[in-house]
Write a structure and sequence with these properties.
The protein has 415 residues and is an alpha/beta fold. The chain has 2 domains: 6-200 and 399-414, Glycogen Phosphorylase B (Rossmann fold), CATH 3.40.50.2000; 211-397, Glycogen Phosphorylase B (Rossmann fold, 3-Layer(aba) Sandwich). It contains 15 helices and 14 strands. It has helices at 27-41, 89-103, 114-128, 140-146, 156-168, 177-187, 211-218, 239-252, 279-290, 308-314, 329-336, 349-352, 367-379, 381-396, 400-414, and strands spanning 6-10, 45-51, 60-64, 67-72, 109-113, 132-135, 171-174, 194-196, 225-230, 260-265, 297-301, 317-320, 341-344, 360-362. The longest helix has 16 residues, at 381-396. The structure holds uridine-5'-diphosphate (UDP). Uridine-5'-diphosphate binds next to helix 1 and helix 11.
Length: 415
């Protein structure tokens, strides 16, 4: 198998350097950054191409040994609707081709993330004549299955591009067998070209820390029971289920009213002006007011990724009540920190967590069951401890060094 030395990683619409937990930045950004870092560590040089969304960003930003982020022009140098970026695709491709030529780099593989990058990848392939590995992270058809309004529905163009990429890419990586199945059933993809390789977690950073130490570092109170929810403020994350579940627990256990709190990471912090909050955050705000939980559920806003291990370790329970999750990085990170997780039995979460061994699974859209399982973890020490140990152990098999080796083997097989 030929060795792969240079990888062009495409993360066109959203940068691996973006602030996480905001509208367009989450698991995919972490994936691109961490995979690239690990590949760099394993001796592969990686250029991550992304669009410039701020005029002051330099063209090249070093990320890690052997890894750099390269900014190209694609539309205005400002945040921009990803559905409209297609108009600027040809100029972006020109920019990348010029860059590669000026640097004298010949890429062995194009690894493309999300459908927006895929469109660029298949054009670049014509010039570079190297294989394209495509990952979707989420699929439009799956999002549409759980969409509750026209606003949440993905465009037919996205679905068409995804279908084209499933046909055209040299290989497709699915994060789970379930994801692979969706590609086959919803898009008619050829199963033989889809490789299942999970996401990873940096186990050296995401590891257990005593709860009191984590809380002290974060300035969180010691005497309260904290249920943590993490995610972009999007209906798909189901954070409304967590608020409803907490309302049920307060109603059922009046003595918990002063001590049981929900903390939500993502979106905007409590102290910011409400005009900045998106529709979902405003909806969650209205819901907590309606249930008299204004002071029991707090918005902490987006938090630096470096602080996430402490947040997971500080929580009594981490809730992941998503309606759909293709992989579920938040759950995996929390597990690596030994935090007890209650998650919806959907998508990647249902494969990541073994119910009652490495976490608890509940049906999606069911706040009563979510409340019940949160209560189990809050009141039954033996169950919590066993799950915490099981979760930590399970997360080890997803460590980045291992996942990146699998990705490299795929590169080599295609090269
Ligand atoms: N994240 C973060 N800070 C935040 C919110 C999220 O660092 O304020 C990170 C989180 O640790 C995880 C990722 O963003 O690595 C979210 O990944 P997930 O797959 O759970 O959700 P996605 O956003 O991809 O739907």
């Amino acid at each position: 198998m030929p060795a792969v030395r240079h990888v062009a990683m495409l993360s066109v619409h959203s940068s691996p350097l973006a602030r996480l937990g905001s509208k367009e930045a989450g698991g995919m950004n972490v994936y691109v950054r961490e995979l690239s870092r690990e590949l760099g560590h394993q001796g592969v040089s990686v250029d991550i191409f992304t669009r410039r969304s701020d005029p002051s960003t330099p063209t090249i930003v070093p990320l890690a040994p052997g890894v750099r982020v390269v900014h190209g022009q694609m539309g205005p140098a400002a945040p921009y609707d990803k559905n409209l970026l297609v108009h600027y695709g040809p100029a972006f491709v020109e920019d990348i081709l010029r860059f590669a030529e000026s640097q004298g780099v010949q890429y062995d593989i194009i690894h493309s993330h999300y459908w927006v990058s895929g469109e660029v990848a298949v054009v670049l392939r014509q010039s570079w004549r190297c294989p394209v590995v495509q990952m979707f992270h989420t699929l439009g058809a799956m999002k549409n299955r759980v969409a509750r309004s026209a606003e949440e529905t993905e465009t037919s163009r996205r679905i068409a591009v995804e279908r084209m990429l499933l046909r055209e890419a040299d290989a497709v990586v699915a994060a789970t067998p379930l994801d692979r199945e969706h590609m086959v059933h919803s898009y008619g993809a050829d199963a033989g070209r889809i490789h299942t390789i999970p996401g990873g977690v940096e186990v050296r950073r995401f590891r257990p820390v005593p709860r009191s130490v984590a809380r002290e570092r974060l300035g969180l109170p010691l005497g309260q029971q904290l249920v943590l929810g993490v995610g972009r403020m999007e209906p798909l994350k189901g954070l409304d289920m967590l608020i409803r579940a907490l309302a049920m627990l307060h109603a059922r256990h009046p003595s918990w009213r002063g001590s049981l709190r929900g903390i939500l990471i993502g979106g905007h912090a409590e102290t910011t002006s409400r005009d900045q909050w998106n529709t979902e955050q405003q909806r969650l705000d209205a819901l907590r007011q309606e249930h008299g939980l204004a002071s029991a559920v707090s918005f902490l806003g987006t938090q630096p990724h470096e602080l996430m291990p402490d947040y997971y370790a500080a929580a009594d329970v981490v809730a992941v009540p998503s309606l759909y999750e293709s992989f579920g990085l938040v759950a995996l990170e929390a597990m690596a920190c030994g935090a007890p997780v209650v998650a919806s039995q959907v998508g990647g979460l249902s494969l990541l967590i073994e119910h009652e061994r490495s976490g608890l699974l509940v049906p999606p859209n069911d706040p009563a069951m979510l409340a019940e399982q949160i209560a189990v973890l809050l009141t039954q020490d033996a169950v919590r401890e066993a799950i915490s140990a099981g979760a930590h152990q399970r997360a080890q098999s997803y460590r980045w060094s291992r996942v990146a080796h699998e990705i490299q083997s795929l590169y080599c097989a295609l090269g």
